[in-house]
């Protein structure tokens, strides 16, 4: 992990803060826009972002949109064609081709959400291009985060985004064209914050995000706060959390109470016992859908990004996080998590958990078995244990 100084990293909470900042940056673009996302929806938010991309292309900026073939499988071809007609280059990462046959490659998804504008500003986080209120009926917005980055860290993000675009293009048989050569990165100092860009791929960075989490958890002295949509960490992360709690560190995990993947949620709950017995706090978020993937350790280290603490994020998907080494940022993120924890979550009492019914225990074991089967199909069961 390469930590760089002189950055400005701004925390953006939910789509209400993220989408206006993203669209404003795209509307200021003069040279190029790169946007990667897992889900790009045909809704009001998708239309607004698409409109900004088209306006940038009309001004002469080179605009490239990379969407995941599975996550954005419902995006109509006509919508994509309208972008292409406006000179927005669109590619799909591993186009979705139905449910069968089951292959390991099915789980290798572009899950990261990254935007780059003119080599001067970047956005990294967990927020897809979709309305905050879609997919659930709570009436409250989806709970999520992103960051807006300026400074030398943008130079670290730029080649990672460029490489994946050209890799996807090459696999489709489209060689680089002179008009699509990436610009030289030249982001200068923008603030006083130290930060690092941590991404996961299936080559040299296979375990990068997991290792950053492990180092931070093992070095914790006072408090570890984690808000994670899909929480099913492997043995190394679970053991690190347990050891931290046993040495007196407050460890609080905020997970989904409402979930769009009920089976996975039941499997995740099977891990509660050992964590609760060690003194780890577990809070289930119930006000709306929790989609965040963030953590704060001792207010000195924070991370915001797309990677869940589950086997598919840590061992298969392409993910991207920003790690921030700044106490002011850490305090801000900590306060935001604690506010949600206090008003939108309910703590799981250890005594009540131990008294759960046999039916509940059986459902957990069945779900866990199903999750293990999926990991076996993906070829990662051994790595996760």
Please give a structural write-up.
With 385 residues, this protein is an alpha+beta fold. It folds into 2 domains: 190 residues, Endonuclease Chain A (Endonuclease, Chain A); 190 residues, 2-Layer Sandwich (Endonuclease, Chain A), CATH 3.30.870. It is built from 13 helices and 15 strands. The protein has a 15-stranded mixed sheet, sandwiched between helices. Helix 5 runs parallel beside helix 6 and helix 7 crosses helix 12. It is globular, with a radius of gyration of 20 Å. The two termini are 25 Å apart. The model has no long low-confidence stretch (mean pLDDT 88).
Shape call: globular
Main beta-sheet strand count, sense and barrel state: 15 strands, mixed
User: Which strand order does the major sheet show?
Assistant: 4-3-2-5-6-7-1-8-14-13-12-9-10-11-15
Structurally, the number of domains stands at 2
User: Any low-confidence stretches, pLDDT <50, length ≥5?
Assistant: none
CATH architecture name of the largest domain? 2-Layer Sandwich
Query: What name does CATH use for the topology of the largest domain?
Result: Endonuclease, Chain A
Mean pLDDT over the residues = 88
Number of helices: 13
The CATH homologous superfamily of the largest domain is called: Endonuclease Chain A
**N-to-C series of helices and strands:** EHEHEHEEEEHEHEHEHHEEEHEHEHHH
Distance between the termini: 25 Å
Gyration radius from CA atoms, angstroms: 20 Å
Give the strand content: 15-25%
User: Which range best describes the helical content: under 10%, 10-25%, 25-40%, 40-55%, 55-70% or over 70%?
Assistant: 25-40%
């Amino acid at each position: 992990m390469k930590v760089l100084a002189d950055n400005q990293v701004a925390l953006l909470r939910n789509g209400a803060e993220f989408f206006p900042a993203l669209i404003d940056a795209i509307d200021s673009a003069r040279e190029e826009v790169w946007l990667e996302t897992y889900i790009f929806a045909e809704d009001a938010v998708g239309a607004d972002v698409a409109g900004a991309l088209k306006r940038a292309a009309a001004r002469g900026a080179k605009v490239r949109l990379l969407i995941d073939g599975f996550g954005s499988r419902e995006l109509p071809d006509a919508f994509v064609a309208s972008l292409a007609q406006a000179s927005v280059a669109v590619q799909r990462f591993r186009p979705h081709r139905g449910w069968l046959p089951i292959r390991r490659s099915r789980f290798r998804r572009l899950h990261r959400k990254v935007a780059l504008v003119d080599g001067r500003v970047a956005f990294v986080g967990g927020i897809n291009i979709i309305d905050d209120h879609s997919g659930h009926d709570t009436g409250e917005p989806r709970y999520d985060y992103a960051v807006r980055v300026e400074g030398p860290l943008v130079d670290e993000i730029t080649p990672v985004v460029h490489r994946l675009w050209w890799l996807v293009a090459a696999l489709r048989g489209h060689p680089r064209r002179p008009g699509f050569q990436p610009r030289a990165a030249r982001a200068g100092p923008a603030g006083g914050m130290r930060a690092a860009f941590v991404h996961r791929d299936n080559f040299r960075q296979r375990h990068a995000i997991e290792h950053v989490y492990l180092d931070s958890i093992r070095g914790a002295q006072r408090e570890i706060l984690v808000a994670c949509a899909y929480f099913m960490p492997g043995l190394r992360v679970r053991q690190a959390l347990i050891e931290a709690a046993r040495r007196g560190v407050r460890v609080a995990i905020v997970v989904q109470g409402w979930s769009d993947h009920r089976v996975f949620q039941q499997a995740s709950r099977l891990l509660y016992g050992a964590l609760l017995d060690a003194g780890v706090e577990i809070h289930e978020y119930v006000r709306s859908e929790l989609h965040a993937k963030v953590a704060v350790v001792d207010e000195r280290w924070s991370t915001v990004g797309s990677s869940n603490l589950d086997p598919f994020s840590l061992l298969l998907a392409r993910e991207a996080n920003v790690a921030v080494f700044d106490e002011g940022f850490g305090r801000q993120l900590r306060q935001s998590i604690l506010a949600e924890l206090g008003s939108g979550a309910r703590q799981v009492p250890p005594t009540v958990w131990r008294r759960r019914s046999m039916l509940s225990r059986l459902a957990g074991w069945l779900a866990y078995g199903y999750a293990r089967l999926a990991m076996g199909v993906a070829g990662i069961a051994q790595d996760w244990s």
